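Q: Second attempt. The first request was missing the SMILES, so the protein and magnesium ion are both included now.
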Amino acid sequence: MLNFLKSEGVDAGILKEIEKFRAEHPTEETLRCRIPEPRYLYYGKEVWEEAITALVCGENLLLVGPKATGKNVLAENLAAVFARPSWDVSFYINTDAATLLGTDTFTGGAVALRKGPIYRCAEDGGFGILDEINMAKNESLAVLHATLDFRRSIDMPGYDRIALHPAARFIATMNYGYAGTRELNEALASRFVVIDMPAITTEGLVKLLKREFPALSPAYADQFAGLFQDIQKKCDGGELSTKSLDLRGLLAAVRLMRAGLEGNRALELGLVNKSFDSFERQLVTDVIRTRLPECIRFEDVFA
Ligand SMILES: Nc1ncnc2c1ncn2[C@@H]1O[C@H](COP(=O)(O)OP(=O)(O)OP(=O)(O)O)[C@@H](O)[C@H]1O
Ligand SMILES: [Mg+2]
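A: Got both inputs this time. The predicted holo structure:
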């Protein structure tokens, strides 16, 4: 991972800080299995530098951005780079203190605490990934206030107060303004430093495509990345909604092509049909047509 960051051009001084952190907080053998092995790498030097610096300084991170901007990929990559065990918590409307911190259970006739993911992070110096944090009710998240601010502690009624392990960090993700999300209250937001996640650059996307599909021809890698930029521009200009601006969908489409589906049909499944408005679907098809041929043949796409 460190070599990848070096090749991405991340500042050498910042990389030193990671090594220092890792030397100060070696991972216990029993927790190694919890260190993520990333399936994807995050591309974006500036975001990397900001995120690493914030974590080194002991801050918690809130990653805000539209769908498929790599929020979870980055969170996972960060835990891997810092070699910390990680716990993933998906927030939903009924997320409460018990889900996060733990609940009383009966074992062998006695009451014992079944530790929740936040509690485990606190004890083991984990990275807690608080996914879609704004899906939960703010009132239920108040239990995290002491954990996330300078107190760095968990105080559960009936149990001893525990201090957070010095390596523990929290990385939250959120989409803003989507159905089912709520406004994050200021008190909670104030406990994070916030990164506004940019869309992937064309250069980054080409790298992502080549890594994901080693057989993809360079010309088509450029074309697909260009297509994504074209759709992005139409969205910025207000001609299209962001429904078809879906990086996950583009990757899925290329996967379908690799499995033998004709390219335009694959793009229809992955991108065009993400919009349920026939006029908009036509617009996306037009964007595809201006860049790609009417028949996208397997042998042209994969060298
Ligand atoms: N900058 C980037 N670098 C690498 N991959 C990226 C980047 N941006 C998006 N992706 C790709 O987009 C896909 C979705 O990433 P991820 O699941 O992290 O998105 P997300 O921001 O959490 O989306 P959502 O809000 O829908 O949960 C992955 O395949 C990932 O590789
Ligand atoms: Mg996500």
